[in-house]
Amino acid sequence: MKRTMTLCAAVLCLTMALSPAALAAGPTAESQACYPTAVYQSEDGTELKKIYDLSPEDDPAGIPRSDFEQDGFHYTLTDLLKQDLPEHEERQHIETVSLPSKNKDMGSVLALLPQEREFITDDGMMGTLTLRLDTVKVEVAGYGSSTKEVRATRSYPDLAGQDTQYIPKCIEDNGRTLTLQNIDWQTDNTASMDGYAIGDRYTAVATYTGSATSSYVKGYTVTADYSGTVSRIALNKTRYVAIFEGTPIAPVDPAPAPDVLEGAKQFNWAAVLIPFGIVALAGAGIGAAVFYRRRSEAEESGGDDQ
Known about the structure:
- The protein is built from 4 helices and 11 strands, in the order αβββββαββββββαα.
- The strands form 2 sheets. Strands 5, 6, 7, 8, 9 and 10 form a 6-stranded antiparallel beta sheet that branches. Strands 1-2-11-4-3 form a 5-stranded antiparallel beta sheet, with no helix packed on it.
- α1 packs antiparallel against α4.
- The radius of gyration is 47 Å and the shape is elongated.
């Protein structure tokens, strides 16, 4: 009996030791993952390229090769190309610059644009580029508006009295409608009555006011191209190009209990079934040991009876 218990304990320890190893056999994140330096996707989405520039210390095994989904496509790796980068690489490059300007005259614009400029491209190539004068453009960046008060006067002479009914309440002046603001009455003729001077004719000097709105240019935008040769020296790197083929993802009708189905998809069945399989094997081993132990004891008992 003691021997049987010892065997059971050994099998149980073996099961506990193998279970973590079985769980670790599932998918895990790569410890030395490589990250792309550039990603290019075709216009129709059916092809996607990931560029990896690896140094001698980088392991290309860290380049992800598994399928993934992006922008409505399911991508599968179809090829992984290896390219040895040249020690010196150069190409022709055009860089477009855009900057604000307060004026549009060419003298002010060219003062903002040096004849040569240093540029660094997105992929790390450098070079001195030259201004192309035929590409210089000046465009209005925006408009603003301002409002000011305008005034106009009108004289209405030879009026019999100081009665405003003879004075227009609105006038047109240079296409604007002005309204009456003030009247200054002036006497044209005077008569003497009982020693007092009495005016018998009047002139009305009317002042009209209104507003005028005008627009103005707030500023200008200058664009120009610089062109020339850019180059770089490769620092002992190897380029890998991972090519993925994209397949449009067909819409799927919603299934019942999505949370349960999603949980079933993400559940690691291997983490459960493998330990159970090990326990089952261990149980079978224990059963066989007990069977043979009892059989031996029975044979020994039978021999003693004889």
